Amino acid sequence: MTLIDARELSKSYGEVRALVDVGFEIGAGEVVALLGRNGAGKTTTIELLLGLRSPDGGAVTICGAEPTSVAARGRIGAMPQHTGFPDSLRVRELIELAAAHYEHPQDVATVLASFELTALADDRVGSLSGGQQRRVALALAFVGNAPVVMLDEPSTGLDVEARRALWEHIRAAADDTRCVLFTTHYLEEAEALATRILVIDRGRMLFDGTPQAFRARFGARRLEYVAPSGERTVVTADDTDAYVRELVASGAPFRDLIITQSSFEDVFLDLVGGAV
Amino acid sequence: MEFRLVRAHVVALLRDLLRTPSFLIPTVGFPTMFYCIFALGYARTNADTANFIVCSYVGFAMLGVTLFQFGVGVANERGRPWERYLRALPVSVATRFAARVIVALIFGAASAGLVGIVARLLSPVTLDAAQWFLLALAAVFGAIPFVLIGLAIAYWVPARGALPVTNLLYLLGLFAGGFFMPPQYLPSFAQAISPYTPTRQFGELLWSVTGAHDAPHAMSVLVLYALAFAAIAIIGYRRDERTRYA
Q1: Could you tell me if A209 and A236 lie in one domain?
Q2: Residues of chain A positioned with their CB less than 8 A from the CB of B16
Q3: Is A50 touching B (CB cutoff 8 A)?
Q4: How far is CA A210 from CA A27, A77, B218, in A?
Q5: What's the number of domains chain A is made of?
Q6: A120 and A21 inside one domain
Q7: Does A39 share its domain with A165?
Q8: CATH number for A146
Q9: Looking at the predicted structure, is the pLDDT value of residue A196 above 90?
Q10: Are residue A178 and residue A232 in the same domain, yes or no?
Q11: Does A102 touch chain B (CB under 8 A)?
Q12: CB count in 10 Å sphere of residue A171
C-alpha cells in the first residue's frame, strides 16, 4: 500500500533550483534513507512531504490526502528539531501533548518505556542531555501511531554510542504497519537501518534502490596500489581477482596493493562525485 | 476546532508560562505594583478618584497582557523550530489561536483581578457588583484591538525588535491614553493627540463604568481600530507564511 506518493516535485528558491522532478512512492514496511550532501535538497523534500512548503511543480499525497490538510497531518508523525522544545515542559507532558492530536495514539507509558524515557518522564525537557532530547524527539514522532514517520537527521551531533542506541529505537519502532523516511548524512546510518536508499544531489534523484543494489552499482570491492612514482591508483570492481591478474600480466611495477570491501561512503562519493 | 485540542494547547502554554516566574510575576504583578507606588496616594483622597483610577489600572493590566502575549510572544515563537513542529501536527491555526486567546484572558483576569482586589482593600472604591461586572466586560471588549495590535507587531517586527517596540508603544499608549494621569492633566501636545489613540478610547470605555463617558463612541472607535489592525496583522501573517513556508 502506498503511503507517500511524491510525483515530479520541483521547487526553486529564487534562482536556486532546490528540487528538479523528484518522484518516489513509499509503502508500508519500508525504512527509507534519503541521502545527500548539505544543500542537496533533503530538507526541502521533507518540508514538501510535511506540507510545510508547497512545490512549484508536481504533487505529494500522504495516504491519499494533500499534505497541508489536517487529515494528512493526522497520518504523519514528524520529529521536531531537538533544539526548540518549550524547555519548561516535562517529558511526559510534551509526549501527552503530541498524543492528544492523533486519533489512535500509542499509550504514553509504553512510548516512554520504549524510548528509555520512563525515568526521565518528570524531568523538564530543557534539563536533558542532547541524546536524551533526541529520544524525546523520536518519541514525539512515534507516539501518534501514524503510518508515515519522518525523521529529519535523527542523529546529527550525537556521539557514536548514542547514535547506535538511537538506531535500536528506530529499528524497534519501525514495523509492517508504517513507513519510516529519514534523512541523514551518516552513511553508516543508512546502511544500518534502511531497506531502501534514495540519493539526491543538486536537487535531482540519483539513485533509488535497495542497499544491496546501492553497493553493487559501483563494484563491490575497492582496490588500490601505488606506482613507483608514488602515484596512487584506486579502482572499484566486482572481480578484483581478474584485475590483479591483468595488472601482474602487464608487468607494470606496483607496491602496497590493498583490496577492501567497498564502503557505503565510497559508493556515495562515486555517485555524487565529490567530497561529502 | 476541537475543544479537546484547545484545552491541550491551553494547558501546555499555561504550564510553560507558569513555570517561568521571571515572566509570571512581572506580567501579573506589574500593574498592581504601579498602582501601589504611583496611584494609591491619589486614590485614597475620595471615592470618585478611587473609582477612576481602578478602572484605569484594570485597563493597564489588560493592555500589558495582550500586547506582550501577542506582540512579543508570537514574534519570538514564529521563527522557532518548535513552531515548525506544531505546524506539522494535525491541528488548525484557529485552534492554536483560540488557545492563546484563552491563556491571555486567564493572565489578564489574574493581573486585572489583583488590581481590583488591592484597590478594593486599600482605596475607597464604591463600585457595586454590577459595575465590577461591567468593568470586566469593558476590559475584555476593549482588549480586543490590542490583541490585534500585538499580532501586527509580531508579524511585522523581527523577534529581536518586538520587545522594545512593544514596550515603547505600551508606555506611550498608557501615557497618551490618560492611564497615568487623567486626560485633562496631560501636557497640551498629548491632550491634542490623546483622543486619536486606541488607549484613550479604551480608557473612555472603562471610565464609562463609573462616570459620564461616551461608551458607544469609544466602542465604535475601538472596533475600527480592531478592523484596521486585523488587516495589518493578516497581511503580515501572509507575508510571513510566504517567506517561511512558501
Answers
A1: no
A2: 86, 88-89
A3: yes
A4: 14, 24, 70
A5: 2
A6: yes
A7: yes
A8: 3.40.50.300
A9: yes
A10: no
A11: yes
A12: 13
> In DSSP terms, which residues pair with A150 in a beta bridge?
A78, A181
Q: Is the pLDDT of residue A100 over 70?
A: yes
Q: Are residues A165 and A253 in the same domain?
A: no
- State the average pLDDT over residues B25-53: 93
The count of residues in chain A is: 276
Q: What is the mean pLDDT of chain B?
A: 92
- Kindly state whether residues A60 and A171 are assigned to the same domain: yes
Contacts of A139 in chain B (CB under 8 A): none
Question: Of B77, B67, B5, which Cα lies nearest the Cα of B31?
Answer: B67
Which residue, A215, A237, A262, sits at the end of a domain? Answer: A215
Residues A48 and A179 in one domain: yes
Whether A266 and A156 map to the same domain: the answer is no
Asked if A71 is an interface residue toward chain B (Cβ–Cβ < 8 A), one would say yes
Q: Which domain holds residue A258?
A: 218-272
Looking at per-residue pLDDT, the higher value among A266 and B59 belongs to: B59
The 3-class secondary structure across B148-200, one letter per residue, is HHHHHHHHHCCHHHHHHHHHHHHHHHHHHHCCCCCHHHCCHHHHHHHHHCHHH
∠ CA A260-A192-A151, nearest 5°, is 140
A18 touches chain B (CB under 8 A): no
Q: Rounded to two decimals, what is the model's pTM?
A: 0.84
> Phi, psi (5° rounding) for residue B67?
-60, -45
What digits encode the pLDDT tens for the residues B148-184?
999 999 999 988 999 999 999 999 999 999 999 899 9
If pLDDT is split at 50, 70 and 90, which confidence band does A276 have?
very low
Is the per-residue pLDDT at A208 higher than 90?
A: yes
Q: pLDDT above 70 covers what percent of chain A?
A: 97
Domain ranges of chain B: 3-245
Task: Give the end of a domain, one of A185, A215, A245.
Answer: A215
Q: Side chain identity at B6, as an amino acid letter?
A: V
- The per-residue pLDDT for range A250-263, each reduced to its tens digit, is 888 899 999 887 77
Q: Which of residues A42 and B243 earns the better pLDDT score?
A: A42
